[in-house]
C-alpha cells in the first residue's frame, strides 16, 4: 500500500484558485520549449526591429517628423503653384481661374497627396510604425482597458470566463457539474476528472457510475490511490493542461531563435520523451533548477493520472520531501518502509539475471560482462524453478561461491520437483568454472558482499521476510517513487544500486503493454548509472511514452567509449556554467554550425588622386604622424559554431544554461540560452 494512503484526509486545493480563468487562459501552439500558458507569439520581423534602442529610435522619429512637417508645408505650396502655372499655360479653366469650391477641392487634393508622400517617405525612414507598436499602441490599450469597467457599469455586458464543466452538462451529467461548481477544484482535480471523462467518452456505459461518484465526492472523485489532491510545499510553475513545467525564460540575445526570445521556457513529456542529458559542476543549479522542478511536475502529473515518476538520488539530495512520493526506498535506513526487488524488471529469469550482473560489475571489468551474465543465469534460473522465487542476496552469494550446503540444497529441491535433468548441465558447467582464475562467480560473490551487510538487512529480501519489495514492473500505474541511495556511507553499493534501478527502469519502460502513462525517470547523479545497455535503452524509450532526465557533473566520469553514444541517444542536451572545455567540445560538435553574416573592415593607404592630393597627404603625415587610409567593408555569410567550447566553459553567466531540444515527433530547437532564475 502506498505510504501516503495513511497520512490523513486529502488536502483540498486553495479556495482562491480561479479554475475558470485558468482554463480560459490562452495556450497557443508554439515551438517545443515555449511555455504556452499565457504565451503571446512574437512576430520575428518585429522582434528584429525591436533591437533598435529606444533613444536612437525616438530621436530619428522626431527628426523625421520635423523634416516631414516642413516638407509637407512647402510641398503643398509648391504643388499648388505648379498646378496654377500649368492651368495658366494650358488654359485649363478650373486650374487657371478656379471657383471657390474648385479652389477648395484643389487645395484638399494637394494637401492629401503631399501628406501621403511625406508620411510614406519620412515614416519609413523614421520607423514611425515601430514607435506606434512600441509606445503608442500599449498606452492606448491601457487607456481602453481602464475605460472598460466604466462602460460595463453603464449597461454593457462583460464577457465572462468559460464554463470548465460544459462538456459534462451537455452529455447529461448535470448533477456532477453542479457539484463541481459548488466547491473548490484545483488544477490537479480538473485534469484528473477530465482524464476520467475521456475514458467515459470511449465507454459510455460507465457514464452513470462516473456521474454518481462525482456527485458524491466532488473534486475528490476518481482520486489517486494516495487520496492526495495536490503536493505539499508545491513551488514550481506548472500548467497541467499542457503538462508543462516552467524552468525560466529564454534570453533576448542574437544566439536564440527569434520565436523564443523573451518567452518562458518549459519542459513537457513531448520533449522529455527523447530524454535529457544535463552536465555541469556541483553548485550550478542542476538539482534545484532542473531535477527538482521536473520531479515535482511528474509527481503532480501522477496525481492527475497522466504519469508515473521514479526519482533517484543521494539521500541528502533536494528532490522534494518524502510526502511527495507514494514509495520511498532508502537502503541503509532502518526507518525505510520499502525494500527493492533486485530482479524487479524481468519476467524471465535469464533477463533479470543479466540486468543484475550488469549492475554488479565495476566499470573496469565491463569486458567480462557476458561471462558474468552467464554465471549468474546458471544459478538464478535453477533456483527460481526449484523454489518459485528468486534467490536473496546471501543465497545468491553462496551459490556463486560454491558453498556445498547451498548447492546441495538446490540440487535436492530440483530433484524433488523433477527438474534436475533440465538444469543439470547448467549446474555442472557452473561447478567446472569454480576454482579457475577467470571464474566470474567469485567476482560476483565478492560484489554481492557489498549488499550483504547488516545495514541492508531486509532491503532485498525475496522470501517475504523483509520489507515489502518494490518491483519496477509497475510503471503502468500512476506511482511516485523516490529511491534514496547511501552515497556517503556505502558509496560502492550505491553505485551498484544506481545501475540496477536505472537498468530496471529502462527495461520495464520498454516492456510495458499499457503505455498511456508517461514514465519519467530523474537521476540526480547518473555517472554510476550509465552503461551500454542503458544507452541503448534510451533510444528505444522514445516510442514508448517514457523518458529520462540524467544529470552529470562531468563527462569524464563516464568511460570514453560511452560518451559519444550517449550524446546520440538523448534528444535534449543541457550545459550549465563552468563545464570543462573537453565537455564543451562534445556539446559544440553535437550542436553543429550555422550561417552567420560577418562584416570585415579593411584599411589600406590612400594613393588616389593627383599631385595636389598627394602633396596634401604628405603634409598631413608630416604634421600629424598618421597616414591617410581608405576603408573597405566586406559582408559575407560564413559557418560558425553555434556555441564554441570556450563560450560554454567561460562565457555562460551564473544561473543560466544552454539547452537544445528534440520532441518525440522530430521537431528540433537549436541551443537556447535560458535564465533559470527568471
From TrEMBL:
Keywords: ATP-binding, Membrane, Nucleotide-binding, Transmembrane, Transmembrane helix. GO terms for molecular function: ATP binding. It comes from Kitasatospora herbaricolor. Residues 1-21 are annotated as: Disordered. InterPro entries: P-loop_NTPase. This is ATP-binding protein. The keyword ATP-binding applies. It comes from the Bacteria. The chain crosses the membrane at residues 61-84, 104-123. Signal peptide: none annotated.
